[in-house]
Design goal:
The chain has 68 residues and is α+β, with helices and mostly antiparallel strands. The chain is built from two helices and four strands.
């Protein structure tokens, strides 16, 4: 399910580029973050207060920052 979006991000981002994705805390976010990391994306997760989180949280807003 995540492959089309991750493929697009990989294609569109230049080396060192950054993509932000907002998520309201849907259940698939955990798999999305894991799959992105497995594909070589560096993922930073931030909460609604802009604090860095160690892992994605279900049911809470978060911002994903993906870089190449």
């Amino acid at each position: 399910h995540h492959a089309p979006l991750l493929n697009l991000i990989q294609t569109m981002l230049e080396e060192g580029g950054c993509c932000w994705i907002a998520d309201p805390g849907r259940t698939p976010i955990v798999d999305f973050v894991r799959t992105a990391a497995e594909r070589g994306q560096h993922v930073i997760i931030r909460d609604a207060d802009w604090q860095t989180c160690s892992f994605p949280m279900r049911g809470r807003f978060q911002l994903l920052e993906l870089t190449r």
